[in-house]
Design goal:
single chain, 192 residues, alpha/beta, Rossmann fold, six-stranded mixed beta sheet, two-stranded antiparallel ribbon, 29% helix, purine salvage, PRTase-like, glycosyltransferase
Length: 192
């Protein structure tokens, strides 16, 4: 998606360690108009899939998932929580995922009442690097008996293995921007 690529080039910052900082528009401050355009693009890409629900992980996936849901007929959005709280009641699906950005493992929790067998689920998130977060959501969907009908990613780090692993496993991964290389010294970002 050219609009997202242009925004990354203009406002993104490349940090050492293959970190792409896009907090001015994607994962701290949110550009809702951009999110809406991203949602429209995913709706075009995944049209005809009969999406029942969108599943993401807190926190950065929530905004894009909610904007996208409007383009899928206002389907519900469920976000997996990263911490247990007293508000999480009843039976739960729980798995652990490793975060490339945070460099640690954390639990991913979804209340069973929000994900049912037979539901057709679109997974959405802001970044795809090593694929661990998506694999966690896939595992939860599998445990629930829900069908993953697509995976939408805002920014995929194409030079890392996550996208390839998920595609080889048979998942339809559609990334709006695939970064092929980044240079922290020059600040350049190249796309597929």
């Amino acid at each position: 998606m050219k609009e997202l690529q242009d925004r990354i080039r203009r406002d993104g910052m490349v940090k050492p360690g293959n970190v792409l900082k896009v907090d001015s528009f994607l994962n701290h401050q949110c550009d809702v108009a951009l999110f809406d355009h991203m949602g429209a693009e995913w709706a075009r890409i995944f049209s005809g899939r009969h999406i029942d629900k969108i599943l993401t992980i807190e926190a950065s996936g929530i905004g894009i998932a909610c904007c996208a849901a409007r383009h899928f007929g206002d389907v519900p959005v469920v976000f997996a929580k990263k911490t247990q709280s007293i508000n999480l009641e009843g039976d739960q699906y729980v798995t652990k995922v490793y975060s490339y950005t945070k460099q640690r493992e954390f639990p991913v929790i979804v209340a069973k009442r929000f994900l049912k067998a037979g539901e057709r689920v679109l997974l959405l998130d802001d970044f795809l690097a090593n694929g661990k977060a998506m694999q966690g959501l896939i595992d939860i969907c599998g445990e629930a008996g829900a069908q993953v009908v697509g995976i939408g990613i805002a920014i995929e780090k194409g030079f890392q293995s996550g996208g390839e692993i998920l595609r080889r496993a048979g998942y339809d991964v559609e990334s709006l921007a695939i970064v092929t290389s980044m240079d922290a010294e020059t600040g350049t970002v190249e796309f597929a």
